[in-house]
Amino acid sequence: MNGADAQGQTALHWAAVRGAVPVAELLLRSGARLERADSRGYTPAHVAAQYGHTAVLYHFAVRWDANMEVLDGDGRTPLHWAAYKGFPDAVRLLLLLEGDVLRPDAEGCTPLHWAAIKGNAEATHLLVQAGGQPALTAADGRGATAAELAKEKGHPLLARHGARRAAFRSCR
Fold first, then answer.
1. Could you report how far apart the first and last alpha carbons of the chain are, in Å?
2. How far apart are CA 15 and CA 25, in angstroms?
3. Which of 103, 109, 125, 142 has its CA 20 to 30 A from that of 151?
């Protein structure tokens, strides 16, 4: 049941890739383990977030009490991945499940940093709403804010918006 391929992925990982809630449920009832990580440290919850399968994430959290703050090999949670990949529904769900918007990964990047790097405007907006001023001013391991990373990666509109919000909020 928990056998894995060369990358350490189990059948439950693949059910998460495909968004197959009924298959995931059958595997879990048969003894599959949600905490089983592959060679990169990705659990099935990380994989579901990477593919934007909100229904799978919800099922894992509500039916099976999965840890949605679990860290992969780079210190990233499913929220980091949903933000980076630009899946706003998954971001909303993970925030509702009390995902830590300010948690830095091994590089010091928060979920907002990753959303900004990829130019994911809706995910960025959701994370700013949830994290407020601390999210806007959080610096990564190099000392860069999300707005600075957005600018660096060629997302000038997102960078200007983030910088304006940070400046406006700091004047209050």
1. 55
2. 9
3. 103
Measured distance CA(157)–CA(35) in Å, rounded: 39
- Alpha helix (H) residue ranges in the chain: 11-18, 21-29, 44-50, 54-64, 78-85, 88-96, 111-118, 121-137, 146-152, 156-170
CB 25 within 8 A of CB 63: yes
Q: pLDDT tens digit string along 104-114?
A: 999 999 999 99
Q: Is the pLDDT of residue 167 over 60?
A: no
Q: pLDDT tens across 35-63, in order?
A: 999 999 999 999 999 999 999 999 999 99
Q: At what angle do helices 78-85 and 121-137 cross, to 10 degrees?
A: 130
Amino acid at 168: F
Q: Provide the mean pLDDT of the chain.
A: 92
What DSSP designation does 11 have? H
Q: Could you tell me if 118 and 152 are in contact, meaning their C-beta atoms sit under 8 angstroms apart?
A: no
Residue in 131, 32, 17, 30 with CA at minimum distance from that of residue 80: 131
pLDDT(15) > 90: yes
Tell me which residue of 93, 15, 21, 98 sits closest to 63, measured CA to CA. 21
Which pLDDT value is given to residue 112?
Answer: 96
